[in-house]
Amino acid sequence: MIDFLRGQVAHLESEYVVLDVHGVGYRVFCPNPYAFSAKNQETVTVYTHHHVREDAILLFGFSTRDEQKLFRKLIEVSGIGPRVAMGILSGGNPDTVVAAIHQENISFLTKLPGIGKKTAQRMILDLKDKLEGMGGTASLFDPEPAAASAFQDGNPGWPEAREGLKALGYTDMELDRVWSKLKDQVSQDEAVDSVMKKALKLLYAG
């Protein structure tokens, strides 16, 4: 199993990053590839999950061990495959996702990409006792007022996307500036992961 890769970012796309490790380019699918955009020409560490199935061998990558660990727990839940788990991590940082599971916050979980009520209930049932020591102390915002406020600005998924971007190290000032550019480019029903990726692209472009 490939547990991590260390190298330079050679290429970025909306779903993956290509990491140059001693002249070999590894395509690594990431929740938010643009999180690595500011690290061009620097040596970066990408924590990975090596996924093997009959028709493909894939690498999924993460910027932290917590993301990697939560991803591996998520794909143990019936109905959650690697792609859905990636969507969950793109829509919420590990602390808030773990907190939602511990607090049995179905309202929050069902706002994550690809998660319906039954899957949210399975996440709580299967994982609540398996996430000890994984953060989860985050104070979750009340989704209804936040969503209503964001809806007036164009998209109800922005508060969750903003929380994820803050977890990546972006400041309130940077996020306010990028939202002023982004709010006219997203639809009212656009998914959180899509909003986040568009925001990261704008942040990367400066």
In the sheet with the most strands, the strands line up as 3-2-1-4-5
Mean pLDDT across every amino acid position: 81
Largest sheet: 5 strands, antiparallel
- Say how many strands there are: 5
Q: N- to C-terminal separation?
A: 37 Å
Poorly predicted runs are 136-153
Decide which structural class fits the backbone.
alpha+beta
Strand content: 15-25%
The level of helicity is: 40-55%
Domain tally: 3
Q: Radius of gyration over alpha carbons?
A: 17 Å
What is the H-and-E element order? Answer: EEEEEHHHHHHHHH
- Total of helices: 9
As an assembly, this protein is single chain
Coarse morphology: globular
Organism: Fontibacillus phaseoli
Pfam families: HHH_5, RuvA_C, RuvA_N
Keywords: ATP-binding, Cytoplasm, DNA damage, DNA recombination, DNA repair, DNA-binding, Helicase, Hydrolase, Nucleotide-binding
Protein name: Holliday junction branch migration complex subunit RuvA
